[in-house]
From TrEMBL, chains A, B, C, D:
It comes from the Bacteria. Belongs to the TenA family. It comes from Photobacterium sanctipauli. The gene is tenA. Its EC number is 3.5.99.2. The lineage of its organism: Bacteria, Pseudomonadati, Pseudomonadota, Gammaproteobacteria, Vibrionales. Catalyzes an amino-pyrimidine hydrolysis reaction at the C5' of the pyrimidine moiety of thiamine compounds, a reaction that is part of a thiamine salvage pathway. This is Aminopyrimidine aminohydrolase. One of its GO terms (cellular component) is cytosol.
Amino acid sequence: MNHQDLIAYCQQDWEEYTEHDFVNQLATGDLNKYAFFHYLKQDYLFLKHYARAYALAIFKSSTLAEMREPLPGLSALLESEMNHHIEYCQTWGLSADEMEAEPEDFGTVCYTRYVLDTGSAGDRTDLFTALAPCAIGYAVVGQRLEKWAETKLEGNPYRSWVELYAGEEYQSGVEETIRRLDDMLEEIPLESKRGQRLCEIFKTATRMEVAFWEQGMQAAQ
Amino acid sequence: MNHQDLIAYCQQDWEEYTEHDFVNQLATGDLNKYAFFHYLKQDYLFLKHYARAYALAIFKSSTLAEMREPLPGLSALLESEMNHHIEYCQTWGLSADEMEAEPEDFGTVCYTRYVLDTGSAGDRTDLFTALAPCAIGYAVVGQRLEKWAETKLEGNPYRSWVELYAGEEYQSGVEETIRRLDDMLEEIPLESKRGQRLCEIFKTATRMEVAFWEQGMQAAQ
Amino acid sequence: MNHQDLIAYCQQDWEEYTEHDFVNQLATGDLNKYAFFHYLKQDYLFLKHYARAYALAIFKSSTLAEMREPLPGLSALLESEMNHHIEYCQTWGLSADEMEAEPEDFGTVCYTRYVLDTGSAGDRTDLFTALAPCAIGYAVVGQRLEKWAETKLEGNPYRSWVELYAGEEYQSGVEETIRRLDDMLEEIPLESKRGQRLCEIFKTATRMEVAFWEQGMQAAQ
Amino acid sequence: MNHQDLIAYCQQDWEEYTEHDFVNQLATGDLNKYAFFHYLKQDYLFLKHYARAYALAIFKSSTLAEMREPLPGLSALLESEMNHHIEYCQTWGLSADEMEAEPEDFGTVCYTRYVLDTGSAGDRTDLFTALAPCAIGYAVVGQRLEKWAETKLEGNPYRSWVELYAGEEYQSGVEETIRRLDDMLEEIPLESKRGQRLCEIFKTATRMEVAFWEQGMQAAQ
């Protein structure tokens, strides 16, 4: 099996996630500012647990090569990306103190802890399968919005968000992630119990991503 | 510190949880039937992960005495309570197949995975602190509803739910749980970093319990 | 693949383990009494971590059926077997206090922590593969010693040890364990990366069992 | 409590570890070459699991500051130290292939899996306490050998080993490690159950370090 099988197994949830109003409204520039602020603050909390998941992947590795794979991502997260995130939020007037004081919302807890528990209970392949909807989904969203007729970059306050995920750097990073995932999945038959279990993990993680968009929308109501 | 300190740290969240409309409407008999059905189906999925948390507590024990403490609860869950739950649901017309086919809703994922990840990342005391709002909260709800002026047991379709948690057996079980938790907390000063961290865990788990009630209410809308 | 493939992969280590002088000398009655005492005391410490491994298996289960499988073994260990072990040791003049005061020897740490770490890092199948040499090996030892020409049960102080593992109850319990392991392994091709990794786990756990016999022998020197 | 309490709790084991013949013979230059080769090959396998323990510490962190602490050590291990180790071994005529083909010996399994299981079952403080004998002990060995009357650096084939651990860079790194450990231990009373449990962890890990030296000595026999 490969990552396409995972997506096909939960096509409807996948579309709900990658074609969600939240990202469409980012592309048209119509997203409520407070929905975006909520998303930014929660995304910061999300990144902490995302880094924990990468560390868990190193703990769960058998070979030195496996241990080395998640390291650049983990280093980038802890050494630069979380700081960049704070800086970006400051351009929106959100202070570092405000970020730190923010309690985790339900959608953030849902997705992050689902990934971490799935990784703790399962093996490295289970963990990377639970992490996959995040990386792959944002790349799909980026590609789609770039070509979408209704996307309006000129004067769009969320332009840099769209450009980040549609951009070459992010897209090629995800291609590498997909290649590694497909390597892990290669010897697992889709119809095996193991294959079906991985499909269920991917599907549930995809549903939790929807909860993450939803909480942003609800924050603005 | 003891369990009272944990509750006092998040008094407002605690009240939101233990005085939630969901349980008040159970006591008056006014709860929407579909809200209750949703709750029942999700509670079944919840119990599976609750049993996993008890097993994790055994894994995390140092002494034989510590290992033996969670065993009766774990055995009861896997050997009888989950079957009783299915039987009770059948009295409401929910089949076992329907229970099995139910996908986990967001509130269920939130609470269960938060507990399990907190337990995996922390030690046995962290785990039992994350589990505490469930047991203690249901006992507080039971006591409160039993005395509440608006509670109406006669002809109330949810009567057995109220009586279960107000009942002697459940209440004395929780007293034992509290005694053990207080033993674990006894040597930890409330104002220490460790004490404050445990307060944060209890508070977050309490907020996740609110999400669990909320998802029941939302299901009926 | 199945359990026979695991054994075949490490045939030499397997024989070193199941045909070790320690068990041969139990069968002939020639084992040094202090070697046996050391073994008994360490086996008690071993059982604690063995129970932790069973609890970990429940934590790592996806379905209710999977969660229920290790429960009877876990309950038996914590509720009766550890007490029986203490009683048996008392017939040899080893007091419960002596058992409790015994520090874990290296071979005990090797085997138990290898199993637990392999289970934590991997999934349920990795865990049961690491546990397999213990159950299967003792059954093989029991069968072999029962038929061995040099086995001398009459007047042998270790007779009950040999009879326990050669006995119907232990043998049929292991048959069930093997059946479950083979079910888990069924869909994994021996030559896959996953299959080879499981072979390495089984081989290392088998080598750690040898360390467990060795430490008994060394204690008597 | 602080790290001195941990050492004082197991003074005899600590001396057996830090004044072991293995390191004394390194300082006098008398160590059997094959004992050293065995040590080098096992140390390479040790480093892999040491890196896994650092990753586990990141997984087990609550704050961003906690997550960042083990990262430089983890990066250094995976990006440079393991390669340097291979290069150093090559100067002794041990090929990279030989390193990879080496099975883990019992002492290596003992120490590494004890640390990892203690960390999995406990919290971040338990994990760092189990890791502490390694870092602190090597610094103590380095200091002692540097001043020891019988140490002979001139013409000693193991000179670089002694100089590495006696050197400024290693010593100041360990001072930082000790400062962090003492911060974690500061609010835990030595006589509390938690304090005594940490003493037991440190003692057992120290005993496992002895097993690591021992296996080197035995390999030369």
